Automatic annotation (TrEMBL):
It comes from the Bacteria. This is Apolipoprotein acyltransferase. GO terms for molecular function: acyltransferase activity; hydrolase activity, acting on carbon-nitrogen (but not peptide) bonds, in linear amides. Keywords: Acyltransferase, Hydrolase, Lipoprotein, Transferase. SUPFAM superfamilies: Carbon-nitrogen hydrolase. It comes from Streptomyces gardneri. CDD domains: nitrilase. Residues 5-244 form the CN hydrolase domain.
């Protein structure tokens, strides 16, 4: 039995500063995808989309996301659950600010066609020093029955190869990575999406915010690093099908029939010093300044 999944990446823009209007737009977009593409099973939206976040907008003072933060489950996830149950779709609505006892996290959720939150992932590697969300400490995967296993990551997580490697080690065959990038490093992120796919033999689904200055270029790659779909700068939907049997074939026979890297990692694992000795022990750390230059000399956390 083949493991085929229809996917839509939504490269869309929020109604800046208006979460209620943005959710209404989101609901219309999900319903439109369901009506226009009946073979779609999973829809994925960008990071912080439902928060109507505009990071360079003067109307967003410091603390905007803190004020919107809510628990999970909460009003936003409850509303997405109702939409998923109504449309019969798997939905990853990007990420939302989640409030917990530890503070505010940047959290992605996966919601089933039955209207249940089946996975919740707190971003492990926030974009410091700009992003103030509290880092998560748990890697998260979930299963779509009779299809395969999916891992969750968010935006800057893609710059840390250990995150994708860990998700693949946990059995993920697809990494879903909602993103909000409005800066010039999007070009590097496109390279990283393909690199993470190649080095872990996984699909990578990386939708970015669209229609705002400096945004777009969502990307989906296959487990050998081929680009399945790539967006432009505006708002658009990228639709395609994943064949998860290709992941199994690539891992068993090797990328391009040449590189069965997971078998080698199993049978002849290299001694990775950063993992065994600690990142702070590396020579590269010598002479590096503080992560937060403005806080140099401060004894605060």
């Amino acid at each position: 039995m083949s493991r085929i999944l229809g996917v839509a990446l939504a490269q869309v823009a929020p109604v800046t500063g208006d979460p209620q209007a943005t959710f209404a737009k989101f609901s219309r977009e999900v319903r439109s995808l369901k009506a226009l593409s009946p073979s779609i099973d999973l829809v994925v939206f960008p990071e912080l989309y439902l928060s109507a976040f505009g990071s360079f907008d003067a109307r967003h003072p410091v603390g905007y996301l803190d004020r919107l933060a809510e628990p999970i489950p909460g009003p936003t996830t409850d509303a997405v659950c109702r939409l998923a149950a109504d449309t019969g779709l798997w939905i990853v609505p990007g990420s939302i600010p989640e409030r917990s006892a530890k503070g505010v996290h940047n959290t992605a959720v996966a919601i089933s066609p039955q209207g249940e939150v089946v996975a919740s992932y707190r971003k492990i590697f926030p974009w410091m020093p700009y992003e103030t969300s509290v880092p998560g400490d748990t890697y998260v995967t979930f299963d779509i029955p009779q299809v395969g296993r999916f891992g969750l990551a968010i935006c800057y997580d893609g710059w840390v190869p250990e995150i994708s490697r860990t998700l693949a080690w946990m059995g993920a065959e697809v990494i879903i990575q909602p993103t909000y990038t409005r800066t010039s490093d999007r070009e590097q992120e496109l390279v990283l999406a393909r690199a993470n796919a190649i080095t872990n033999q996984v699909y990578v689904l990386n939708p970015n915010i669209g229609g705002l200055f400096g945004t777009g270029r969502s990307i989906a790659t296959d487990p050998e690093g081929r680009v399945l779909a790539q967006g432009g700068a505006g708002e658009e939907f990228l639709t395609f099908h994943l064949d998860l049997d290709l992941v199994a074939t690539t891992r068993e026979r090797g990328t391009l029939g040449l590189n069965p890297l997971w078998k080698q990692l199993r049978d002849a694992p290299p001694p990775f010093p950063p993992a065994t000795e600690g990142y702070d022990k590396g020579q590269i750390m010598t002479g590096l300044g503080p992560l937060h230059p403005a806080r140099a000399g401060s004894t605060g956390a």
